[in-house]
Structure formats: C-alpha cells, structure tokens
Design a protein that fits this description.
alpha/beta; Rossmann fold; 7-stranded parallel β-sheet; 6-stranded parallel β-sheet; 14 helices; globular
Length: 371
C-alpha cells in the first residue's frame, strides 16, 4: 500500500475537517497524521491512522519552526511517504520544504484562507512570501473555494491553472446524517440554555476572534428586537466573550468549544458568519444541511457557500448597519427563513456531500500516485 501523511498544526483542524478523509483513506493507503499535540482540544479517535506528534507552532517562532522542519524531514525520510498533504499556512510552509529536502515525490497543500489578506506592511509581505514559497515547493495545490483560488491568482501567489478545487468547494463537505433538522434536539438545547421555545436565535459557530467579525455581530445584534437571542459557540481565542455579554446583555449565550456543533445548529433559526477572511466557510454548509439560512460577509470563500438571496443574505464585511439590517430581515420573517433554509439544505446535499468530497480526494491521490 502507498504511504501518505496528512500534516497540520491543530487537533481542531483534524476534528472538524480532516477526520472524514483520514477514516475513509485508512483502508486504501497506509495513513499517518503529523499534528501538534497536545492541542486546544483532544484529538478525535482515529483507529487505523498512525499519529505522529510534531510540534508545529502556529505563530512565527524561528527556533521552534526550525526544529519542526527538521522533525518533519526526519519523519519523511524514515517513513518514506509517497505523498504528504498539508493544511494550515505554517504546516504548508514546513511540510513542503521538508518534503522537498526528504525527496517526497508528491507534496500537496490545501489553501484554506490567507491571514495576510487583512495585514499591512512588513508582516503582510512576509506572510505573502510564505504562501508563494509553498506554491513553489508543492507539486500540487488545492484551494477550498473557487473564489479563493481566483484571489490567489489575482495576488500573484499561484497561477489559477495550478490550483485545483475539488467539486464545488470546501475541505470535507457536509455529512447529512450528522447535520440535519432536529426538532427534539432544538427543544433540548434551548431548555439547557434557558432560551424560550419561540425566541428567534442567531448563531455564530467558530473561533471567537476579531477576524471572524464577532464584535461586529455583537454590535449589530444589540440594535435588534429584545426577543431575539445571540448564541456564540466556539473557543474564545481573543477573550471577547465578556464584551459580547456587555453589548448584548442577557440576550447573549456564550458557549465554548464543542465537539458537537450540530446540537447548537438544531437550536438556531439562522447562522451568521461576519468574517473578514475565510477560505470557504464550512460552517455555512453545515448550517444549510440543518435547514438554516445564513447571513455572511461578502468576501471570497463565503460567497461560494451562500447563494445570495436564495440560501441566505450577504453584507459588506465590517458594515455593522448592513449586518443588523440583514439579521433583522431574517429574524422577523419566519416564512422567508423557512424558504431559504429549505433551499440551503437542498443545495448542501446536492453540491457539498461529504461522501462525494472524500471520494474526489481519493481519486486525485490515485491519479497523482499513478494508480
């Protein structure tokens, strides 16, 4: 069997995006996972996958970065992988260089959003250079949305013809058996959080950071009718939970990391993703499969996940007034939410099936490896 290795910086990335691929591929290849351990959350159980702990720092730390590069190159030489595939910027930079040094024939990387898109000055130039270095050292490149691929091409990072998008986009698609309408779950979670059965609920799921537009969401929500509830779910990396509570008062519910986002999707009436940067916005299609429309920022990645006016509504990133208007429109109109939610679910199942995405990635691996 051919040997392949997935490489990333965080167990959260594995749990949310890579686990379906790993579990699918383990019976078809000899599969390893190089990941930083311990991480922000426990790594999901992955029977049949060889776990290789490699400390890859997410931030720029030259000495630790050099140690991680050496560790990856040593691992690649010892295990003689036929293919390595990296996810996350730092993992991509180190893995493509280590793979080149170790003579790995197939060095893949998936772009999932650019941190430098929001930066200025020397740091922007440095991070752009890192993405260009990945493009030079990788043998195959993927983007998780067509609009992100076009952005990378327009910015001169990689030629559009060198960067592939699997299917309609996303890293791993959506599992309709897991993400689906759930009336019983809706009642249970609302009772658990003290939310009235008829209260309209707007949900944010993701890393609670400024880049995700969380403060914009709180400011917009503070202007909405008093019967609405804001539900915030995810690791609070920037310490914004207190500010959200201050702005929204007892209408806000702040929940930390969860391994079961589908529970909170069942309890909501719409999803909001006010992000300033996003590779695709996988949570949007998970919400769609659960029958929820979405309000999202009009940025690359999100525009692939939301069909504006059909499965949700878009607004200009950073425009708090426009965000509030979109939220008010959907929260006040139950028939419109139901119509858009039904359209969103139909589109998610037709275009973003997880079964299709894992098959497409396996097919590309076999083509790349000459099988």
């Amino acid at each position: 069997m051919k040997r392949i290795c997935f490489v990333t910086t965080s167990p959260l990335i594995v749990n949310f995006f890579l686990a379906p691929h790993l579990l699918h591929l383990r019976s078809r290849f000899e599969v390893s996972l190089a990941v930083t351990l311990p991480g922000e959350a426990p790594l999901k159980d992955l029977p049949g996958v060889c776990i290789e702990p490699v400390a890859i720092p997410r931030k720029i730390e030259p000495l630790r970065d050099l140690a991680a590069l050496q560790a990856l190159a040593r691992l690649y030489r010892e295990r003689r992988y036929d293919l390595v595939h990296s996810f996350a910027p730092k993992a991509g930079l180190l893995s493509t260089w280590a793979g080149s040094l170790a003579g790995v024939r197939a060095r893949l990387h998936t772009y999932t959003g650019q941190v430098w898109a929001l930066r200025k000055g020397p740091m922007r130039a440095l991070l752009r250079a890192a993405d260009r270095s990945i493009a030079r050292r990788a043998t195959h490149l993927f983007a998780d949305s067509a609009s992100q691929r076009d952005f990378l091409a327009a910015e001169g990072i990689v030629a559009a013809e060198r960067c592939e998008v699997l299917g309609a986009g996303s890293v791993n698609g959506v599992d309709p058996g897991r993400f689906k309408p759930d009336a019983a779950g809706r009642d249970a979670v609302r009772a658990e959080l003290g939310i009235a059965a008829r209260a309209p609920v707007a949900l944010f799921i993701g890393r609670v950071t400024r880049d995700k537009g969380v403060l914009d969401l709180a400011q917009a929500f503070a202007t909405l009718p008093v019967d609405a509830v804001l539900l915030l779910v995810g690791p609070d990396e920037d310490g914004l939970g207190g500010e959200v509570r201050r702005l929204c008062g007892d209408r806000a519910r702040v929940v930390g990391y969860t391994p079961a986002p589908e529970r909170y999707l069942a309890a909501a009436d719409l999803l909001c993703l006010p992000s300033y940067r996003e590779g695709f916005g996988s949570v949007v299609i998970e919400a769609a499969a659960a029958g929820l429309p979405a309000v999202g920022s009009r940025i690359y990645g999100v525009v692939d996940a939301i069909a504006d006016g059909k499965t949700g509504l878009l607004f200009e990133a950073g425009n708090v007034g426009e965000l509030a208007s979109r939220l008010r429109q959907l929260l006040a109109d139950a028939p419109l939410r139901q119509h858009m939610g039904a359209a969103a679910r139909a589109r998610a199942l037709a275009e973003f099936s997880q079964a299709r995405l894992v098959q497409l990635l396996e097919q590309r691996y076999r083509e790349i490896l000459g099988e």
